[in-house]
Amino acid sequence: HHRSSSLKLCGTNYPLSICFIVVNEFCERFSYYGMKAVLTLYFLSYLKWDKDLSTAVYHAFSGLCYFTPILGALIADSWLGKFKTIIYLSIVYVIGHVIKSVGAIPTVGNKDVHIALSMLGLILIAFGTGGIKPCVAAFGGDQFDEDSMKERQKFFSIFYMSINAGSLLSTVITPVLRGEHSPYCYALAFGVPAALMMVALAVFIFGSSLYKKNPPQGNILLQVCNCIGFAIKNRWNSSKSAPKRTHWLDWAEDKYSKRLIEEIRMVLRVLVLYIPLPMFWALFDQQVQEDSAQICTSCFYELQFKYQKQFSGNLLSYILWISESGPAGLWSLLHVHPPPGQQALFRYITELISHTRRTCSVSRQESGTIVAKRMEDVEANNVHIAWQIPQYVLLTAGEVMFSITGLEFSYSQAPTNMKSVLQAGWLLTVAFGNVIVLIVAEGAGLEQWKEFLLFAGLLLGVCVIFSIMAYFYTNNDPEQLDKIFLEDSRWDEDEDDNMKKKNEEIQLNKAGKSTRL
């Protein structure tokens, strides 16, 4: 602990160990999102599943990735500690990626073997990525001392930046790898993320001597459940003449310590505050979970690779132009039309981003040329794609502020022995947001614009409710709690020492009197 706290990064107050944690997170997110970038296309074109089955499996996998953090948090806080949990579950993660890659090799078995290997790989990946999600963020926060609060807050911003950087690069690179060498080279597309996950594990292990490692505190979940159950049972069985308690958890004081009761009260206070938050993710994930967008993605990546390279180069030049020209450059961009050879590609990108309800199919001629055919149920328009930049700027700004604040808030408000558990509670809001999307999208059967309007209206109502809840919320101070109970424990030890001294003096006096007698 002394060594890890003494090594700082380039003369700053940041511990050197966070470099390994941030690089690990970047590689892990590259691995995860790189695999997901071609997952739906793999189901459709390689396993020959229909759209409904592909969408169901995709959503089930995504949901499992955000429900398993609870399991990882319990293992970390109750049994192995965060460091060992990250190591062991990362190994499971790597094995899942390798199995998934092997299942995509055409010469390995038949279709049933490919399906079995793919499903086994996805399950292992879900347990691996979900299990380490709450542990890595909390483990990074553990590296900071009590006097480095500002640095810790900035760390979560850097941590989230690494998440987005890894997901951005992987989403662009992985589909290119799949189409660069062979139209069906999914083994390479899945193998590169597997290699990046191995790099992530190696980087994390390499910095092991620098980490501050807090030991686990025992089976916290079992204690929490037993304490809550005892309090409810004691309150239910109490007579009317029994003295009233300040909080319903105080009915557990007969059996459990005041510290445990206060820690449970802290966690429940935050979890109640999180109840409205899944609606944010339900609306935000509309831009990435539309079935039609996934199908159009298939058509997009079946276009010839030369158009992808042309588009990448011109898009980069447009971005640099905006950064150098400022608002004038952006305004000019709204009137810029791409070269004729790229117009078809821009139309597909517009369809992909704007979520218009369209179906597209890909057919291969005898000569091997890819021909993209499109059927539209809405008329084409002349609205430029750049007009959607303001919407995505607002969406991204809201998501960044929401996610970074949530990560730091979940860490700062959690007791020392429940850091990972509360991080997992924060990630559960994403999982329940996906559940809401599935229920509304599959059950209601509304048109797309009505779905968007419904979710936006619900989120507006949730904002009002959450604002009221936040106004009455009282901040937790886990460090102050540690100091209070540490002083109490010292006072109890002093009292025990005084009692022992008094008993020894009494025994000596008795011995002296008996000697004189």
TrEMBL record:
GO biological process terms, semicolon-separated: oligopeptide transport; protein transport
Top-level taxon in the UniProt lineage: Eukaryota
GO MF, one example: symporter activity
Alphabetical list of SUPFAM superfamilies matching this protein: MFS general substrate transporter
Region described as Disordered: 493-517
Biased composition (Basic and acidic residues): 498-507
Its membrane topology: Multi-pass membrane protein
Keywords, ordered alphabetically: Membrane, Peptide transport, Protein transport, Symport, Transmembrane, Transmembrane helix, Transport
Chief place of localization: membrane
Subcellular location: Membrane
Ranges annotated as spanning the membrane: 30-49, 55-75, 87-109, 115-136, 157-177, 183-206, 266-284, 421-440, 452-473
One protein family per Pfam: PTR2
Classification via InterPro entries: MFS_trans_sf (IPR036259), POT_fam (IPR000109), PTR2_symporter_CS (IPR018456)
CC per GO annotation: membrane
Family: Belongs to the major facilitator superfamily. Proton-dependent oligopeptide transporter (POT/PTR) (TC 2.A.17) family.
Protein name: Solute carrier family 15 member 2
